[in-house]
UniProtKB/TrEMBL annotation:
Superkingdom, taxonomy of origin: Bacteria
Segments forming domain RagB/SusD: 357-538
Protein's name in the database: RagB/SusD family nutrient uptake outer membrane protein
CDD domains on file: SusD
Subcellular location: Cell outer membrane
Organism annotation: Hymenobacter nivis
Length: 538
């Protein structure tokens, strides 16, 4: 019998067969077969069971692994950037048309992007449940046991947060699910899904160590700070969408204050270095996905990531997707060094290589410099880590919360920290042919002036939203920021020949929400097989 995605992915038991997706603590080879009963009686096996959860979080294609059909590529920029006004699909017009369908709200339940996200997320959830449900019964050291459970709880919440923003309320599983349970699988509400996520993140924060408590070999594992920062992000999103928990901005303020007062994080001194290898797991890193390189070529679940290969220039080494827009370019203030760090245009030199931007394979004339990589000797995936939560984001979340709580002076100080760092940035590495150096930006005096001390109300919020857009540009956050602040629908075209807004409105959730927001379809096969309610308009 050929199993459907959930049947294949949720009936997972002892998951110690790891792929080679990540570096450092994820580069270990499996020690051999084991049973679920003995999995958590050995510290090496227990750690590998948790490594398997990290591994699933790193997937951007596959899996095949005998589960059945190959599933395609999925990257968070497909949602966070391309669905927004920050980016167009890119590449050639016919390449990956499914992305254009998503952006124009023409997507269908047969779109292969959405089931890939669904399957990867539920793989991570299934693996997390294996740990959460069994680690307490193991005989390993109690401190290690608590940490591993905290890591698993974080990733279960991380995956459900991704799912709820894209699909709305989804089936919630605290234990392994077998195909025989199909008749009992139901979608939960968005409100209940958020309650589940919050519960897991709070439990994770109570169990996880701070960043500086990890040994060098464990750098990159999730921390107490990551759990609290993600909980702040979750609540901030609830405040603008489904806020059944009646959160207030004080909750965001308190959580971000906890992260800041932990003294575990600081801004990377040079903005231009943030996305380079030199800053991986650096002082600004709250959470990032770890990757390594090897001699393997392309293929499902190989070492490294194709995240930046897909976004790189087709004329150098890539496929040319996720092109930043002129609208985003124009958002930057004059002489802001972050603009050069974010954009590649025709004839720019990036990492010492001259870039030709060909408009026959580019939608906007721009590419993202934050993911620029040098072509390797053979076609293979990149080892560049993906930053998922930066300390600058935490500062700006607290600034927004402070502004909403009428703490304008505090909000201004927080934003100015981010602007001060940006003003001091160098040029990005390799802006001269054959060079990899960080040359001075020679930023003119008066660039990025501090926010006025008298700024308050909507004007202050607008300034904070502006700062988020330019500071975090092309980092997959713009769409979610537009949705939670109620600004997304206004960015969509209303041309009579292509009324994207009208189509989007047919997919808006029916659950009570602060701001209307659309949902993407659940894959048709899962809807039919598991009897799930499909999202509006599909």
């Amino acid at each position: 019998m050929k199993l459907t995605y959930p049947a294949r992915l949720l009936a997972l038991t002892a998951l110690v067969v790891l792929s080679q997706g990540c570096k450092n603590f994820l580069d270990k080879q499996p020690l051999g077969a084991t049973t679920q009963a003995s999995l958590f009686s050995d510290p090496v096996n227990a750690v590998q069971a948790v490594n398997a959860i990290y591994d699933a979080a790193s997937w951007d294609e596959g899996p095949k692994w005998g589960y059945g059909d190959y599933v395609g590529h999925v990257y968070e920029w497909m949602f966070g950037d391309i669905l927004s006004d920050d980016a167009q699909k890119g590449s050639t017009p016919s390449d990956f048309k499914l992305l254009s369908d998503m952006k124009n709200w023409n997507t269908t339940a047969s779109n292969t992007i959405v089931p890939t996200l669904w399957s990867h997320s539920y793989t991570g959830i299934g693996r997390a449940n294996t740990v959460i449900n069994n680690v307490d019964g193991g005989s390993i050291d109690a401190v290690l046991k608590g940490r591993l459970k905290g890591e698993a709880l974080f990733f279960r919440a991380y995956n459900y947060f991704y799912l709820v923003r894209v699909f709305g309320g989804v089936p919630l599983f605290e234990r392994a699910v077998l195909p025989t349970d199909a008749a009992n699988v139901k979608r939960s509400s968005i409100a209940d899904t958020y309650a589940f996520i919050e519960k897991d993140l709070k439990a994770a924060a109570a169990l996880l160590p701070e960043k500086n408590a990890y040994a060098t070999a464990d750098v990159g594992r999730v921390t107490k700070g990551a759990a609290n920062a993600y909980l702040a992000r979750v609540i901030m999103y609830e405040l603008g969408t489904v806020n059944a928990a009646n959160h207030t901005w004080q909750d965001v303020y308190d959580l971000t204050s906890t992260v800041i007062s932990s003294s575990q994080y600081s801004l990377e001194p040079n903005y231009a270095a943030i996305h380079q290898e030199v800053a991986e797991n650096g002082p600004e890193s709250v959470f990032e996905i770890q990757f390594a390189v090897s001699n393997e070529g392309y293929g499902p679940i190989k070492t490294g990531t194709t995240n930046n290969v897909f976004q790189n220039n087709r004329k150098t080494f890539g496929y040319g997707f996720n092109n930043p827009t002129q609208n985003l370019f124009d958002e930057f203030e004059p002489n802001d060094p972050r603009r050069l760090v974010t954009f590649i245009k025709d004839q720019d030199v990036a990492l010492g290589i001259l870039n030709k931007v060909d408009l026959s394979e580019n939608d906007t004339g721009y590419l993202s410099r934050k993911v620029a990589i040098i072509a390797p000797p053979q076609n293979k995936a990149s080892g560049q880590n993906i930053r998922k939560m930066r300390y600058a984001d935490v500062l700006l979340m607290k600034a927004e919360a402070a502004a909403q709580l009428n703490k304008s002076g505090e909000a201004i100080v927080l934003v100015n920290q981010v602007r001060d760092r940006a003003r001091a940035s160098t040029k990005p590495p390799g802006t001269v042919l054959g060079s990899a150096s960080y040359d001075p930006a020679n930023t003119p005096a008066g660039t990025l002036p501090p926010l006025s001390a008298g700024l308050s109300g909507q004007a202050l919020l607008t300034a904070i939203w502006h700062e988020r857009r330019v500071e975090l540009a092309e980092e997959t956050l713009r769409y979610w920021d537009l949705v939670r602040t109620g600004r997304y629908l206004a960015t969509l075209p209303t041309d009579p020949t292509n009324n994207v807004r009208a189509r989007c409105l047919t997919h808006v959730t029916t659950e009570t929400s602060v701001n209307p927001f659309p949902l993407l379809p659940i894959e048709l096969n899962d809807v039919q097989t598991w009897g799930l309610t499909q999202n509006p308009g599909y």
